[in-house]
Amino acid sequence: MRRTCQRFALSCPGNTRATGTKADFSTPNTGTKADFSTPNTGTKADFSTSNIGTQAVKSFEEIPGPKSLPFVGTLHKYLPLIGEYQFDRLHWNGLAKYRQYGPLVKEEIVPGVHLVWVFRPEDIETVFKSEGRYPERRSHLALEKYRLDHPEVYSTGGLLPTDVSYCV
């Protein structure tokens, strides 16, 4: 997450190399900015271009999301019987988070590991354009490890989970 924060100039804990302290998710083609207002607060999300100069940009810490507990983060919310989310229904988890927190959601799955759910296509486009030539995909680490641990079946870690610079 620290590398992602540095790319977006977000204010992250321990991030001293970032170029700024606020997250700016404006899209170059539309000029719109992500507004962090949540649907359940009665405030309306404003994605118009008329107030771009006056709209305050939120910091990374101000992105809404489920409350994280010490030592377990939000992992307890995914436990069977007591949790409100399920690992095998991530699409429903995303929809529930979007409805509760809005178009941009921050979640600390385990302490120190932040996940940002991005729902608006314009914001997703901004993330993809800002990642650089070889983006890091933490979700593929287990797949890469499995493939590298089984060289009799796989000759490499794979195109998706590894640094694809060797392919270019």
Shape designation: globular
Task: Give the count of helical stretches.
Answer: 4
Oligomer category: single chain
* Number of structural units classed as domains: 2
Low-confidence stretches: 1-54
**N-to-C terminal Cα separation, in Å?**
25 Å
Question: Number of DSSP strands?
Answer: 2
Any idea what the radius of gyration is?
Answer: 18 Å
Region (Disordered): 19-42
Protein name: Cytochrome P450 302a1, mitochondrial
GO molecular function: heme binding; iron ion binding; monooxygenase activity; oxidoreductase activity, acting on paired donors, with incorporation or reduction of molecular oxygen
Family: Belongs to the cytochrome P450 family.
Explain how this protein is built.
The protein has 168 residues and is an alpha+beta fold. It has two domains: 2-132, no CATH class; 138-168, no CATH class. 23% of the residues lie in helices and 8% in strands. It has four helices and two strands. The longest helix has 12 residues, at 90-101. The radius of gyration is 18 Å and the shape is globular. Residues 1-54 have low confidence and may be disordered.
